[in-house]
Write a structure and sequence with these properties.
mainly beta
Length: about 260
């Protein structure tokens, strides 16, 4: 074999190896550190707590009542219902939600939640994160997904003292919308780094909130452990009034996974 023929045979091997190395080096390797597939018949209370009523706009109808929770066929159902007993509890509606406060939190990593959102006038399902320690808004808030009424979009937002009290919602932009097929299961996600929050929908990047230099330090409260909240909210100043005729409504959660 002459040297020219040998080089022709060698070139594809060399370029093939280069392509493989580039592909490997370009991928972020995530390791699964925590998950819930909701495969049982009861909520795993080592991971989650049912959310009780609270005075926040989103929490006025939250309850631990079993009527607002169900698990079957490997999925969790968080329900918003008309209250069947207003003598026992005068609130017109009851809603189910869970959080991992005091049981699981993390700092930096990736979270994905695979779920289906049902629609109703006044329905406000949300997937979000709050700091294990610290008061709102100083501690920050990360809204992985919020959905309103019958919309075909979701909202992905960050909150902090910087955005709430200093009114700096556009330096940088603190919220964005993403379109989705509301009839399907979708995967709602976040990649959390020391210098940016990357929101995703079905594995695609939809919105990035960066850490910014030379602004008030309250712009970035995201250097501490956060816990997870998933809830089927009803009513409030943002979503508007609830139409009782549209209820019950529910969020159907297939799984939650956290990586680092």
């Amino acid at each position: 074999m002459n040297k020219h023929s040998y080089l022709l045979l060698l070139l594809p091997l060399l370029f093939g190896n280069c392509k493989t190395q580039q592909k490997t080096s370009g991928n972020k390797r995530w390791k699964l550190i925590w998950e819930d597939q909701f495969n049982g018949t009861e909520l795993d209370t080592t991971k989650w707590t049912r959310i009780s009523k609270n005075n926040a706009d989103w929490g006025r109808h939250m309850t631990t009542d079993p009527q607002c929770y169900d698990m079957k066929n490997g999925t969790l159902f968080l329900k918003g219902i008309n209250n069947p007993d207003t003598l026992k509890d005068p609130r017109p509606f009851l809603t189910g939600g869970i959080y991992s406060k005091g049981k699981f939190n993390f700092k930096y990593g990736k979270i994905e939640i695979h779920a289906k959102l049902e629609c109703a006038q006044g329905a406000w399902p949300a997937m979000w994160m709050l700091p294990e320690k610290g008061k709102w808004p100083d501690g920050g808030e990360i809204d992985i997904m919020e959905h309103l009424n019958y919309d075909s979009i979701i909202y992905q937002t960050t909150h902090s003292r910087y955005t709430h009290e200093l009114k700096q919602k556009n330096n940088p932009p603190s919220s964005a919308k993403a379109g989705l097929n509301i009839a399907d299961f979708n995967t709602f996600g976040l990649e959390w780094y020391p210098d940016k929050l990357v929101f995703t929908l079905n594995g695609k990047e939809t919105f990035t909130y960066p850490r910014v230099a030379n602004v008030d330090p309250s712009q970035w409260p995201f250097d501490q452990p956060f816990y997870i909240l998933i809830d089927q909210q009803l009513g409030g100043s943002w979503v508007g009034k609830v139409n009782p005729a549209n209820l019950p409504v529910q969020m159907i959660v297939d799984w939650v996974k956290v990586y680092q």
